Amino acid sequence: MERTQDSSLSLKESLYVTGNESTALHTVDIWQPKNGIKSNGIWLVFIHGGAWRDPLTDSKSFQPAVSDLWNSDSAKSIAGFASINYRLSPYPNKVEAPSSPDDPSRNVCYPAHLSDVEKALLYLEAHYQIANRYVLIGHSAGATMAMELQTCSLPNPLAVLGIAGIYDFDGLLEAHHHPTYKEFMENAFPDRSTWKKAAPCTNLSLDNLYERAKLVIISYSDDDELIEVGQAKSMLERIKAGPAPQGRVHVVKATGHHDEMWEGDGHVLAGVIRESLELIQNDI
Ligand SMILES: N[C@@H](CC(=O)c1ccccc1NC=O)C(=O)O
C-alpha cells in the first residue's frame, strides 16, 4: 500500500512474511525520498515498544520522529526510514482492543517476536541493502529486542540505539511491584528458564548483533515513570564487560515520561536520533 505523508517522502507498508505464515502484523513501514535514492545514505530502522502486547503502540509510533527528522538538517544523510511490526503476546484485557485467542498475530511468546524482527531485517537487507549503513533503534521492549538479536545472518548495523529499554528482567520485577509488570513479562516470556538467555544483561553470548556495530548508544530519561534508570546502567555495564572497545559505547540522554519520548510531535525521539547521527558521523 502506498501513502503520502511528508510531500517529499513516500510511505509503503510491505509484508515481510508471505504465504500461510503471514499475519496482519508481519508488516514493515518504509519511508523513502520521492526524489531519488541516496545509495550511500543512512537507514533508520525502528522497533516499537508496548511491552510485547499493546496493539495501540505499533510501527506508526515512529511517524512523528520521521517527519521531524525529514524536516531537519539530518535529512541530507538519510536514505530511508523503516518501522517494524511484529507479532504480539496475548492481551485479552486491553479494553480498546482485546486480543482474541484465534488471532495468529496476537498469541505468540518469546522468541517469536524476535524472529519476526530478524525476518524484517533480512527483508530490508534483500530489498534496500541496509548492511553497514543502518541504525537499529528500539524503544522499550523494542530496545530489548535490538540488544537481544544475535548475528546469525543478519546485516551488520552501523549503530544500535536502545531507548528506555528493559535489559535486566529480574531487576525490572524487583523494582516494580505493580502486577502489570509480572503479567506482561510472563506473557511474553512464559518459560522462566529462557530469561537468562533472553535478557540482554544476563545473556553472555559473544554473538550479539550490537557487538558488530561501530557504536552502541544507550538512551534513557531521568523522568521515565515506567522503566527505572537502573536498566540503562546495567546494560552499560554489560556492554562494557563484553569484547566491545569501551569507546564505542555512548549515553545520549532523553527527556520526559516513557511514552512521551515518541508521542506527540516526536521531537524527543528525533533529538536522540539526531545526537546519535552526530556521534556516528564523528566516528566515521
Ligand atoms: N502499554 C503497555 C505497557 C507498556 O508498554 C509498558 C509498561 C511498563 C513498562 C514498559 C512498558 N513497555 C515496554 O515496551 C500495556 O498496556 O501493557
From TrEMBL:
It holds the Pfam family BD-FAE. Gene3D superfamilies: alpha/beta hydrolase. GO terms for molecular function: arylformamidase activity. Residues 29-147 form the BD-FAE-like domain. Homodimer. A motif (HGGXW) lies at residues 48-52. Keywords: Hydrolase, Tryptophan catabolism. Its EC number is 3.5.1.9. Pathway: Amino-acid degradation; L-tryptophan degradation via kynurenine pathway; L-kynurenine from L-tryptophan: step 2/2. It catalyses: N-formyl-L-kynurenine + H2O = L-kynurenine + formate + H(+). The main chain amide nitrogen atoms of the second glycine and its adjacent residue in the HGGXW motif define the oxyanion hole, and stabilize the oxyanion that forms during the nucleophilic attack by the catalytic serine during substrate cleavage. It comes from the Eukaryota. Catalyzes the hydrolysis of N-formyl-L-kynurenine to L-kynurenine, the second step in the kynurenine pathway of tryptophan degradation. Kynurenine may be further oxidized to nicotinic acid, NAD(H) and NADP(H). Required for elimination of toxic metabolites. This is Kynurenine formamidase. GO terms for biological process: 'de novo' NAD+ biosynthetic process from L-tryptophan; L-tryptophan catabolic process to kynurenine. The keyword Hydrolase applies. The active site is at residues 140, 224, 258. Belongs to the kynurenine formamidase family. It is an enzyme of class 3 (hydrolase).
